[in-house]
Amino acid sequence: MNTTTAVQKKRKPEAIGSGYLNIVAPLIVLVILIAALEFFTRAFGISRFVLPPPTDIIVKTISNFPEIWPHFLFTLKIVAIGFMISVPFGMLIAALFSQFEIMVKAISPVIIWLVITPMITLIPLIMLWLGTDPNLRVIVVIIQATPIITLNTLNGFTNIESEKLELAKSVGASKPQTFIKIIFMNAMPQVFTGIKLGCIFSTIGAISADFVAGTVGLGSRIVQYTKYNNIELSYGCIIIIALIGISLFSIVEIIEKRIVLWKN
Amino acid sequence: MTKKRIESFFAPILMFLLIFTGWEIIVRTLKIPKWLLPMPSEIFKSMVVNFPAFWPHILMTIETVLLGFIIAVPIGILLASLITSFKVVNAALSPYVTFLVMVPLISLVPLLMLFMGYGMNVRVVTVIIQSFAVVNMNACTGFNNVPILRQELMQSLGASRLESYRRVILPTAASDIFTGVRLAGIFATTGCISAEYVGGNMGLGSQIIKYSQFLKTTESFACIFYVTIVGLMMYWLISFAQKKIISWKI
Amino acid sequence: MEKKIFKINRISKSFGSENSDSRVDVIKEISMEILEKEFVVILGNSGCGKSTFLKILGGILPASSGNIEFNGKDYGQEIPRDVLKKFGFVFQNNNLLQWRTTEGNLRFMLEMMHLKGDQWTTRIDEMLDIVGLKAYKKVNPHELSGGMRQRVGIARALVHNPDVLILDQPLGALDAITRKMLSYEILNIWKKTQKTVVMVTNNVDEALLLANRIFVLSPVLPTTISHEIQVDIPIEARDENIYENQRFNDLREMINDIVRSTI
Amino acid sequence: MEELGKKTLQEPRIKFENVSKIFETRSQEIVAVKDYSMEVLTGEFVSIIGPSGCGKSTLIRMLDGIIKPTEGNIYLDGNQVNEEGKMPKETLRKMGFIFQQPNLLPWYTVRENVALPLRVFGLSGETWEKRVDELLELVGLSKSGQLFPYEISGGMLQRAGVVRAMVHDPEILLMDEPFGALDELTREQLNMELLEIWKETKKTIIFITHNVEEAVLLSSRIYVMGTQPGRLVSTVNIDLPRPRSLKMITQPEFIGYKQKLTKLIGDLDLSKIK
């Protein structure tokens, strides 16, 4: 036992789940990123057509905010209403089809087909059918977001451990009871995956609809500002769109954390 | 067993037939004008008859989607590998990984066109920025969720980082990565079509706009169906690759 | 002397459609009678079909042939829904609803059986008290340990005051130490509540500690009852010191030999 | 008495000296193991037993370089192994780790899984390949070598996990509740197989378990651990004759040991739960 000098070592306790790191580190990254962009654009004289300095973007966006405001409201309205219709709609379709095994088989490929089809291809046609009222863009959002919500929800409804269904059987639960109290609750994690993807699809749908036609909406603003070389404002609009998407996503995430307690 | 297999094969086919015949019957009985909503039979006919005219655009769209997608997937995976390899970087960047997916990056398209013109490059870039983020996000999830026991197995053998990555981390994350790749396939087609909307006169997206402006709804629909076929092709390609690569079960 | 609560008559079960290659015969003509307030244990290897048998008994699966009499009434091959109120089923891996708290999981039973009123609310507390989890009333399952979860599972099966408690390998997923402790707890619950209990297990010690009668199932499909053993260890002797009991050890050796010889 | 004499002469193969392990969470420090000391001789079969959360698994993970102790020293063959940085491969090669679950990698066949340590340690050549086949044969898996893990049963999977840890011919086997997830009968069978392997190969084994009966049946010595903090409570030498068999389970001597250990653990456990 005398081969080594037995040095008593004392180490720092090992950290698990380093809490502060997860909050502080991203903030530092953000600050560094903005500072670096600022420095980079100014020091190297990068053309403002490629990337204007962040401070210019912020200042110009704020000073032109009254002009952007109605467009912001409009896009927010389209995304929010479209999203809020898509979620229950998509879930309802899934709930109906999940009741019959044969329907699940028949409809699943159709839903995949709908998810794959970029629904924005229908925008010109929708305008043809329903006129150019910008509010109709809600329809674009709905048809873009609904299939992905249905797909995930249907997955959740059909993937359930047989034990859970056995529990329902062992207490003599009726079909509606089993669906509401077991199948639906059990599918919550997948339902939320679908809703989150629905967020993304909704914003994409709204912005692409703006691109195709019209003079309202943040998407159309980007096109306009870019045309008239107001690059800073284009970037400002992009940031606002990003904020809309992120807020929507964050709200869904907060609700998810409240409901899906058991995931982690 | 066999009965079930027959069911899951024929049920969707029947469903599609039902949808198209229903559509056909409605349009015929209500005598809806062609420019408003064409019959499926006319659309299919147009898909065949106008094929020579569509072909360069189909080809262009396929090229753009595939090229962008093929570049985006490795970028997403590589970026995720880097991010998740270092604890601090992982903590610092993980919220941005989600944010990047949440931002409709197609809003950058007009700006990209400003300094890249209306060529194919700009569309490829659009496809890349629209689809790499979702691969990145899912790959990060996969890399971060490697079961501890598997990591410990490699540690107990004193495996190097690269060896652990190759033998354990990458295969474990494979199914999550494929979830991302599948979504990226969808995002790539959507991204490509929106880029074609905004500028230029090549690709199926531009054709859809053109035909609908001239009230040639049948041709418009034919193009949409071709876009769908491109999307389905992507989907099959990805599913095929997944089956080839993930040959094991969990 | 005592009342027969169950009379099971030549129950068989097969899976897969008739005349197809994938058809599997799991159970072949099992018959048994279970007395009121008796503790019956069914012992068998993994994959021998003992859970399937229990699920038929608990009204979850219908039998392919044979008939079940419960409380003197013949229900044929499947126990109807309204009779299931008289049963409490404990699943192999607790099978709690992860979106409900401990209390919510117990309340689930009452909701399903339309049992309302204050007496049932107090009964939830009583049951949680019996399994020693009153302090964990508002806690979600993922925050409980494996042993605690299984106790909630047992409390849930008892909350609607059933006549029969059916336990499907209730301790199989637990570690050895927790398992031992919970087996004593099941014994105590049985003494306290005076229910008829049918339990499936693959652990000989557990079976001997708890059972009045043990049925050993044959390991090859379709399974049948290979042995029936009366456990004549008095209830007073069933405690931590049971391992010193000569009768216990004799029976244990005997059953071990039976079980091993069948592998 | 002879045992005792031997012990003083022989240098311990493995030595834990006042080892502690502390984890730090956001709100508090958790002492997983406190002041643990133990010595294991060459060729011994030693068990560590205790309730869940007593840090038994942490102990062997520290020995195998998976985690580092916060305090104290661990020696293998007289050399300190808990130095900073990664444990050298030569040291790791002396040990084989058997996990609670089979922990096979689903993308490799059974044979590839068993041969994994060879690949990582860079051992190649015909002798090693032959060894893989021999080991598969030993546990009756030679026909299943080309199958994927999902195609074989739980007991078979765990057998593969056991021989994987032995494929690079380690002298020490570290077993973390290896059969805990299996049903009673398979477990009994595997325990007897393990005794057979131990007898033939003369490995040093540290065996972590919850199961008193299993521990008594297999070990020469049992370390009993308590929780909060994880610490050594008692050491029990098992002087039952070898070779051991399942018949012994019902003999009074065996039951005596079992009772003693059950009491030791039961007291600890009850204080924790109530």
For the structure shown, list the relevant keywords.
heterotetramer; A: 264 residues; mainly alpha; MetI-like fold; 11 helices; 75% helix; B: 250 residues; 2 domains; 84% helix
Summarize this entry quickly:
The complex is a heterotetramer of chains A (264), B (250), C (263) and D (274). With 264 residues, chain A is an all-alpha fold.
The profile of the biggest β sheet of chain C is: 6 strands, mixed
Q: If strands are numbered along the chain, what order do they take across the biggest sheet of chain D?
A: 6-7-8-3-9-10
Strand proportion of chain D, as a percent range, falls in 15-25%
Low-pLDDT parts of chain C are none
Bulk shape of chain C: globular
Compute the number of strand runs of chain D.
Answer: 10
Low confidence ranges of chain D = 1-7, 270-274
- H/E element string of chain C? EEEHEEEHHHEHEHEEH
H/E element order of chain D = HEEEHEEHEHHHEHEHEEH
CATH superfamily of the largest domain in chain D: P-loop containing nucleotide triphosphate hydrolases
Shape of chain D: globular
* Separate helix tally of chain D: 9
Radius of gyration of chain C from the CA trace? 18 Å
Average predicted confidence as pLDDT of chain D = 84
| CATH architecture call of the largest domain in chain D | 3-Layer(aba) Sandwich
Biggest interface found = A-B, 58 and 61 residues
In CATH, the topology of the largest domain in chain D is named Rossmann fold
Strand content of chain C: 15-25%
Largest sheet of chain D: 6 strands, mixed
Binned, the helix content of chain C reads 25-40%
CATH class of the largest domain in chain D: Alpha Beta
